[in-house]
Design a protein that fits this description.
The protein is an alpha/beta fold. It contains twelve helices and 15 strands.
């Protein structure tokens, strides 16, 4: 069994929130002052939800040891209850409070990589309830690299469960203003910090099984982890192929306009597809690695390389959906291009899921 992609048909979890409703509240917007951090920590311990920045995306925090608080997370997001949450900590010692077994490989990652944009999946202790893990016997644990995130987590003084602070299925927020768009009136507070520097969610590394497996690619690559651990670290799925598995077969990170993805960097194909959508009455946009190739057509660049593409990804997606009504994305990550770097697989994974695997 694993944390991220395998679905378990627990009737309890699929029906848990059918009667819950979002209660409209006045959301407070807090700064990183000692007073406001204290307030944010108090809200978490009181069972409320707080949006907070990390280096990856903004999270929607709840007391991971409070089942009622965690339930609010699913309701606020409209998140499927069979989708586990990540438990966030500020100190490595907390891992041993929530994980029942920390393998030698996990100890290497903890000591040599964390804090970082990585999540490790380990067998859980009973203190972490099934509502956090969707009934799985493992728990996903992350220690953010962001100083702002760790300051908040220290003020909370409890492990904090947190998915991304957006409506389920929407592009993840990388600024507090985007959290406000989705969560204003649904949660108690938002800590207004810096824009997220990494821009895509953490690499999820399952270390609860015999062989380490990346369940979700991020900015830390499987190749780096293989070299670090001295064993092959596999990636659960090939993000360039269509898959039929819970957690990847549905749209995630999706804009509210049609979106397709092209994987070869074929300018002629992209131009033809753009022109056809234009003739149909759409206002399309090309979202590409080299926008100068497309003449008078509307084209927006992804960035200079894979890391820049990751940092810009969700913010650009939200900008494009506001200005255009058809997004034609292209991402070619193989063949020694400047996009063939540590975050390339993570960027491609998000693009694939944002377009619902609709490849042209």
């Amino acid at each position: 069994m694993n944390f991220y992609f395998i679905s378990y048909n627990f009737i309890l979890f699929t029906n848990l929130f059918l009667c819950d409703k979002i209660i409209v509240v006045k959301t407070r917007y807090l700064k990183f002052t000692e007073s406001d951090l204290h307030t944010a920590g108090e809200l978490i311990r009181a069972g409320e939800l707080v949006g907070f920045p990390t280096e990856t995306v903004y999270g929607l925090g709840a007391d991971a040891l409070n089942e009622s608080a965690v339930r609010k997370t699913y309701v606020a997001k409209g998140r499927p209850s069979d989708n586990p949450l990540i438990v966030h900590i500020f100190d490595k010692s907390q891992i041993y409070d929530v994980a029942s077994d920390v393998s030698p490989l996990a100890q290497i990652v903890i000591e040599r990589v964390m804090p970082a944009p990585i999540t490790v999946v380990l067998p859980k202790k009973p203190v972490i309830k099934g509502i956090v893990t969707a009934g799985l016997p493992s728990v996903a644990i992350r220690m953010p690299q962001s100083d702002e995130a760790r300051r908040f987590l220290r003020a909370a003084a409890t492990p904090v469960s947190a998915p991304s602070a957006n409506i389920s299925g929407r592009p993840s927020p990388t600024t507090w203003q985007r959290v406000k768009e989705d969560m204003d009136g649904k949660i108690a507070a938002v800590l207004c910090g810096e824009p997220c520097k990494v821009g895509i969610e953490s690499t999820v590394l399952d270390l609860s099984r015999d062989e380490p497996v990346v369940l979700r690619p991020g900015a830390i690559s499987a190749e780096f982890l293989s070299e670090l651990l001295g064993v092959e670290v596999k990636v659960l799925t090939d993000p360039s192929s269509k898959v039929n598995s819970p957690g990847v077969r549905y749209k995630h990170y999706a804009p509210n306009v049609p979106m397709v993805l092209e994987l070869d960097g074929d300018a002629d194909k992209l131009c033809a597809f753009y022109d056809a959508r234009l003739a149909e009455g759409y206002k399309p946009v090309l979202w590409v690695q080299r926008p100068m190739l497309f003449g008078g057509r509307r084209a927006v660049g992804m960035g200079a390389n894979d890391m820049e593409a990751a940092a810009n990804l969700f913010e650009t997606m939200r900008m494009l959906e506001a200005r255009y009504n058809y997004i034609i994305a292209s991402f070619c990550w193989r063949g020694g291009t400047s996009f063939d770097g540590p975050a390339s697989r993570g960027v491609l994974d998000r693009l694939m899921r944002a377009c619902g695997h609709n490849i042209i």
